[in-house]
Amino acid sequence: MPSTHPALTFSLAGTPSAIGEAKILLPLSVARDAVIDVRALLVHPMDTGFFRDAEGNPIPAYFVNAVTIAYGGEQVARFEWTSGISRDPFVRFPLRASREAPVQITWKDNKGGVYQQSVDLKFA
Amino acid sequence: MSSDKTSRYADRGGSRSDEAPGSTGDSSAADAGRRGFLRAGVLAAAGLVLGRPLLAAPGVASNVRGGGARHAGGAMPATAGPDDEMIDAVRLLLKAKFGDRQVQTGHVQLDIPTDAPDGRAVPAILDIDLPITGSSYVAAYYLLVDHNPDICLATYHLTPASGEGPIETRIKMRRTSYVRAIAEMNTGEVWSAATKVFVGLNGCG
Questions:
Q1: What is the pTM of this model?
Q2: How many other C-beta atoms can be found within 10 angstroms of the C-beta atom of residue A83?
């Protein structure tokens, strides 16, 4: 039976594996002014600081706490996260496709790490 | 979302309701004659047979009843619910965030499994059924877990450019507790929904 799942455009080929690698997925066909689902995944351990490793040493807190979504250079959404978000944080959010422009997502973690990924939104 | 849970509670509520007519039938028949007792028994049996379909017949209504019967029919106090099980830390947090604004129940949809064997990744979807326009939109979604170290574990600030649609994420949960989704409109209204999630493995440490 053929898959009915809509084809998606990826911003990164293959599967992200190292900390900070990210992937953004957009629907393959986007109509003007349609509200689309944007899916984004970042590879990050999201350590809470409450766990210990095999030797009994505490694992320090290390998590993404700020996410910003820019569409054509303009900020359209901003997320505040804590370590309560799961490992390799995934998020799906709506976006009104008003024009052809890049969608850029920036993740910042509590140790100063900044990770960016962007994908061009095109009408088809 | 919670069809399994709802039907489970509906069954439980229904069976309790079934027992009630049976027991009253027996007690009223105790001072009647043998013939009356038999008649009452037959009626009670008929009630047992018919009771479930009669109670369960209106589909939506029975779901609503199921939710209510869960609190009203058992040993739990009639008022027990998400608001009554709210711990002080959550009350203080809501007070700090929204001040004197009433956090109303409704319009928000929180789609989350009621049983989470693994608390390290529990999928949650937030949505709202109010019309989203340029002048009336969700300014922010808040996701709260009562018994997590960080109660308000995610905040999603949106703008009219976001349009309307669900926000999906995966969260960690320490133990069984209420998960609350709160939507703050740009007009100042605050809507919420809560679901109790039963957690197996502690995901927070």
A1: 0.71
A2: 25
